[in-house]
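Troubleshooting entry. Yesterday's outputs looked truncated, so today I'm pasting the complete records for two proteins to confirm everything comes through intact. If either block looks cut off, that's the bug. Protein one:
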Amino acid sequence: MRQSILFSKTQREFPKRETFINAKLLIRAGFIDKLSAGIYTFLPLGFLVLKKIEKIIREEMEKIGGQEILMPALHPKENWEVTGRWEEMKEIFKLKAGKKEFALGPTHEEIITPLVKKFIKSYRDLPLYIFQIQDKFRNEKRVKSGLLRGREFLMKDLYSFHATKEDLDRYYQKVISAYFRIFERVGIKEKTYLTFASGGTFSKFSHEFQTECPAGEDTIFVCKNCNQAINKEIKNDVKSCPNCNGNSFEKKKSIEVGNIFKLGEKFSRPFNLTFLDKDGTKKFVQMGCYGIGLGRLMGTVVEVFHDQKGIIWPKEVSPFQVHLIFVGKKEVKEISEKLYNELIKEKIEVLYDDREKSPGEKFVDCDLIGIPLRMLVSEKTLRENCVEFKERKTGKIKLVKIQRAKDFIKKYYAQ
């Protein structure tokens, strides 16, 4: 991608009235545009990051047997009346089409349960794992956190269906492992804790995944013995660690990046989702649900990985692998053009700053955008028949022969 034709542009100043760093940096660097409080457009750079995150999540869901579908975002009122949540859930956006009422889907239990009822008849149809990546709509009252809390947001929700509680328990552990693989790939695993939270249906707790961050809206208490975390909401009810019985905790600010619930029969009973078991008896299906907000995950990555100059993208979610910059006159630009075309042929993702800007402006934008590798071509590097690579994360600089540049990039991303 040539930066001269990139739709979005960087801004010189941080946006006014934004307090969270993810909103400040993503708007200023040209990744997102704010339409209204809690509603954002993902511009080309931001959409590339979002698709990288989506790819990671999709791959990990498929590894644990998930089959992807896409459910409607527009929900009939009657589905929500079955569970009583039409009146109970205050965050629902409601609208009318003639005499018929609808909700803009804040979640999809009321849609997935009657859907799978059409296909589950006996124990032979179980277990079943269905997921989607879909827009959600919630009438949130507090939307000052950038991508961390929105009124419209993209979410992965996985639903599992089981014949027994024991099978649900086994799959629940598989999802926990898959979530940690996702967080490892996006770069935040070391700062992310499996956290006991309220909201369990037939178990005492549900679980959240909380990422340590000073700007976090949540507070967790982390067991100093086993690293198990407990959400502040239930800390008064838990005197010792539910995992190891330890009683020494460290208080941390955090951001919720995922949640998982054992729903049990909470939704299968009102929708009469049953199956015929091996012994010929009719039983209710056991359900679980597992969510990750893609935009929230993107915002969390920025909150965790940035400095005073801008964003520092982890490798797997960076919009491009390398940011190519030239500083100099005609000969330098000609060689940069050649290098750009060679990188494209090698299927290396490259953002090429071909703009006629000052070196200072280019360097500032490069640090702001935060691609892991900067590749500089200048009269000084060409005297050595080299290009200069600078790692955004560490600031380390290395001169590499021009003919070995593409191999250097590939090796860097293979590490």
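Protein two, checking that the full record survives here as well:
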Amino acid sequence: MRDARAPRAPRIPGAPRVPLARPRDCVLGGVSVALADHLDWSVTAVRWMFVGLSLIGGAGALLYLWLWALTPLRSPLDGVAVEGVQRTVPVAWVLLAFAVVAGISAVALVASGSRPLGVLALVALMIALAVCAVAWDQLVDIGDAARGPASSAALRIASGAFLLVLAAALSAIPSQVDSGWVWLCIIAVTFAGAAVLLAPWAFRLWRELISERTARIKEEQRAEIAAHLHDSVLQTLALIQNRAGASSEVARIARAQERELREWLFAGGEAPAADLATDLRDFASALELDHPVHIDVVAVGEPVERGTAELGAAAREAMLNAARHAGGEISVYVESTPGGVDVFVRNRGAGFDIDKLPEGRLGVRESIIGRMKRAGGHATVTSRDSGTEIHLSIESQSEAP
């Protein structure tokens, strides 16, 4: 993003023009900088052009507002997290300052016995400026990181307090206390002060109600879709798995589709928890696509989030060995207790004798038993003709006080 005060590099003849887009770091709206970059002019010249055109029936101000409304913002720079616009000039406070000047002038004219038309015009201008200041803060500056909720609340309170104080000052002028137009100004200023104080709160409450209603409608639609899919698609996929068998390609595809549908329907838009059970479920989904297996992962107890790197690696290796050599149905049981974490990986394949494994087969010895021993836990392999069970256990690490 180019600074408006920085010298511009000369444009190469024949090179395409810079796209007309407003910068995100600007003085007021960034229109002058955007137009200067696009036309390859000086920013100062463009600003004086707007000032000169404004003297011709306000054409410059109208052109500026038109370009501000229609010119898009530049894309955020890489590494910059700011998505909104950061303005050097606090526009809302400037508008409030003009409103204060107009209000003090109106009180002075009323005290001097001036004509009602001029006072009414100043009061209307003051109310419009105060309302515009709060509206600008609530609608335009809502994405400005430099002006947070504290600045917004201070502006709203200052605007409302000034209007109410001005109404009290108008009612305290003894020479005009019986004038009907003065009381009209007092009533208008009082209502404007109340609106400035309460309107942002009501607007925020209205937005929260709309958001809650939208979320409720989405949840109802999701529930209807889930019920429909559960009665039709999910039951069909389950029937395909039962008829095809766990080792067939059709069953694996149907199982993967069923899992994706269930995660989308019942998990919603929330990200899954980064725990051991979620890690093993994701790994089981990948294994089911590559091997003729059906893996069920069941977890009980509190989610395991700490100290599970070695345990998770050993459990994944046990699941991979079961998928490669046993196939069929594999069950994974994760139990978390205050004293530690236990993982059981069971399959119904042909058993094996760990002592008779060749010397080059280090999957069970090193990747499972050795890894758990190095992590401070232990691994037990129980193998029979009816299947194999691998029990991984590790104690919880006591945290320092």
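Both blocks look complete. Sanity check on protein two: The longest strand covers residues 328-337.
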